[in-house]
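Propose amino acids for all 165 sites.
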């Protein structure tokens, strides 16, 4: 078993290294083959991939940090930056665009005072635009976490966002 140590200055207060050990060792057997699943578990826990956690994983499973960053940046489901508790995605694919997706996007930006890719200061919301999430007949579509809000109008945005703490 590798003994990885937290690195000074890496905000160790924010990372529970014992919990990381449980994920890496108990759930995934320190196996480099399980790297993607380990990263999914870390992302599920922190809502993003904290850099200190990635360095810790690299030591524990003996995989180059560059390879871990490569995986973390390749898949769009992973984020290397802190994200809000709720991920708001507005679809701007063709079907949603022609049904008013742009107006919905503008209303979300106004309501949250964010632009694409930004997170509110209270970490409540991260906003992003996406291209087609596979529900074109429901356009315009907004996805919040795993919830699909189809045929949504700009007037419904504020009330919809209120439901997410
Ligand atoms: S274009 Fe929006 S879901 Fe397909």
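Proposal:
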């Amino acid at each position: 078993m590798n003994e990885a140590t937290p690195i000074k200055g890496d905000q160790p207060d924010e990372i529970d290294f014992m919990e990381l050990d449980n994920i890496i060792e108990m759930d995934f057997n320190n196996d480099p083959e399980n790297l993607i699943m380990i990263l999914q578990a870390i992302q599920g826990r922190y809502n993003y991939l904290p850099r200190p956690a990635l360095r810790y994983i690299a030591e524990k499973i003996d995989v180059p940090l560059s390879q871990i960053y490569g995986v973390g940046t390749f898949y769009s489901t992973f984020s290397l930056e802190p994200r809000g508790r709720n991920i708001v995605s507005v679809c701007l694919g063709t079907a949603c665009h022609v049904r008013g997706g742009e107006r919905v996007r503008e209303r979300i930006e106004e309501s949250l005072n964010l632009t694409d890719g930004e997170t509110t200061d209270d970490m409540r919301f991260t906003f992003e635009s996406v291209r087609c999430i596979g529900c074109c007949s429901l356009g315009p579509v907004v996805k919040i976490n795993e919830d699909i809000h189809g045929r949504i109008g700009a007037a419904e945005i504020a009330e919809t966002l209120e439901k997410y703490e």
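The chain has seven helices and four strands. The beta strands are 86-91, 125-130, 142-144, 147-149.
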